[in-house]
Specification:
heterodimer; A: 261 residues; mainly alpha; globular; B: 57 residues; 2 helices; rod-shaped
């Protein structure tokens, strides 16, 4: 059993500078995450309400797709988050593998369910959008198939970790899977360019102006921030659960439980 | 403003099933995640609290 090594190390800030390594220990990150989570939750609510207002009441009807296009305000932000959260998850998994820090593995585990959620939402809303616009719920084209593989990567990561009792070994095995799966992200992103797909090309890219009405883009961007803040909030709450579950035998958790809540 | 009335809003130009089907499932899943997280937090706190009462770690 690993005891808390941080206790013997002086992590405190020196010379007035914030020592970020201080927060790499579960013990010090736990209260910080608890303090930040409600703020990100509130930001998520504000941005989602604003995004939906723009999406339904300000953005005009699309002249080709009518009102069906309004699925875009969750479909695209959810698809962005599904890829972005995977990269963040793989990043923390990789950091854990390299530096053997406990918190990194916990962060990766905390992000996976939210990533899987947004992947499922992207697929679900895409299916409901595909039916009226393409005439089919599903097609095995490159974009849809690679996004489905992303869902299986998330679920595989979670299943693999759940199957291994020892958390540090589960972190390592999960990290190898997560890092291997990173190759799928550029495949998803560029699939609409590399292959002939039914899925349309990107309406918004880093290199060119959005090919859509400004208010439509605004609704989508605000929703994307809403989903981002939501992901941060849920990941912080989940990592707190994971910290307590894994560190239950430590002195600091015993001390924490002694404080009346 | 896009909508003349609430019924027009809910009809979504004939695409109500697809639009509201997307939004309802998204909202439902997000609420579900929040509830599951709250239950997970309560469960581990309860477990640790009971362990403390027994005097163990």
């Amino acid at each position: 059993m690993r005891v808390c090594p941080e206790k013997t190390v002086n992590w405190s800030a020196e010379g007035g500078r914030i020592n970020w390594f201080k927060y790499s220990s579960p013990q010090t990150f736990f209260p910080l995450a608890g303090m930040l989570a409600p703020w990100f939750g509130a930001l998520a609510a504000v941005f989602c309400v604003a995004g939906l207002y723009i999406g339904f009441f300000i953005a005009p009807t699309d002249h080709q797709q009518g009102e069906a296009y309004r699925i875009i305000f969750i479909h695209v932000p959810a698809a962005w988050m599904s890829m972005f959260l995977y990269l963040v998850m793989a990043f923390w998994a990789g950091v854990g593998l390299m530096f053997n820090t406990r918190l990194s593995g916990m962060m990766a585990s905390a992000l996976a369910p939210t990533g899987a959620l947004f992947t499922f939402i992207a697929l679900w809303t895409g299916s409901l959008w595909g039916k009226p616009t393409w005439g089919t719920w599903w097609v095995w084209d490159a974009r849809l198939t690679s996004e489905l593989i992303l869902l299986f990567l998330y679920l595989g990561f979670m299943a693999l970790q759940a199957a291994i009792d020892e958390p540090r070994r589960a972190d390592k095995a999960g990290a190898v899977l997560a890092l291997t799966g990173v190759v799928n992200i550029p495949i998803i992103y560029f699939s609409v360019r590399w292959w002939n797909t039914l899925h349309q090309g990107a309406s918004v890219s880093l290199t060119s102006a959005p090919t859509m009405a400004a208010t439509m883009f605004a609704g989508m961007a605000v929703m994307a921030f809403g989903f981002w803040f939501y992901s941060i909030a849920t990941a912080l709450v989940r990592v707190r659960c994971i910290i307590l579950e894994r560190e239950r035998a430590t002195d600091w958790v015993a001390d924490y439980m002694r404080v009346p809540k | 403003m896009n909508w003349g009335s609430w019924s027009e809003f809910f009809a979504m130009g004939g695409y109500a099933l697809y639009v509201w089907g997307s939004y309802a499932v998204t909202l439902g899943l997000m609420v579900m995640e929040i509830v599951l997280l709250a239950l997970r937090g309560r469960s581990i706190h309860g477990e640790l609290g009971r362990a403390r009462e027994r005097g163990g770690p």
